Prior knowledge:
By secondary structure, the protein is mainly beta. It has helices at residues 13-20, 37-52; strands at 70-75, 82-91, 93-97, 109-120, 123-138, 141-156, 160-174, 184-198, 205-220, 225-239, 242-254, 257-262, 265-270. Strand 1 and strand 2 (82-91) form a beta hairpin. It is globular and about 60 Å long.
Amino acid sequence: MKLKLKIFLILFAGIAIAYTACKKSSTPPPSDSMLTPDVVAGQLATTLNQSLFGGLGAFDVSSGLSAPSTIGMHNSSLSGGLKLTSGFSQPLNAKMTGSFASNVTCGLAIDTTVSVTDSSNGTTATITGSMKFNYVCSNSQVSGFTTNDKLTIVLASPSLNLSYKVGEIVTLTSSNPADPNANISLSGSLNSDGSYQYNTGTKKSGTSTFDYTLTSLVISPVLGDIVSGNATFNTSGTGPKGVWNYQGTIVFSGNHSATVTISGKAYHVNLQTGVVN
Length: 277
């Protein structure tokens, strides 16, 4: 479960609904109309799936159990934005502690502040905050890790300004530490809260909140799939395509599928495409 630190891209999750909600219709609804639960269901499930597998969030659980040593940003084809990755550019200003015994990784704890700024194609991004990371071991074998991250992300471009706060408190544990391909269990919380402002065109603005609580997810790194487990969510926001305010549950059933329930109605979602049945 290599910690790839792709947290930067999560800021696009908050505005994804505003961009995609009304593509099925040639006539956009008024800005104060309520987005339908099926639209929100598809976005919620796919955003969480992409967060866990490295597209929108901090983790890529298809990789191994190693800690980040450096941090930096570069261009990403996804959403035309930037992403933050480990093993690139600026080193972490981290305080590392631990009693390492026979395995230098066991007992390792990283407590660091983050302050990174980068510019590309007229867009400037700044990430500040704190990260706490420590390994969990069993019989001197790395079996998982816990992390507690709180970051503020600011983006400024000629067309769009964004400001987001991202938090995550997550514990990941391997079902078989000796096997790098073993399934992974994950529990914890992911959340983002922010606002955005268009600088061109209609110059609309919006806000969004996404909160997930994850319980006993079982993830296959080999298949890149959430095999089982569940999550609760709370999301709300406003934007050019409408407003939303929903709470509910997500139950993962393997084969890249999940059932999102909102107000007692179930929506079956393909986690790879976002298609709702």
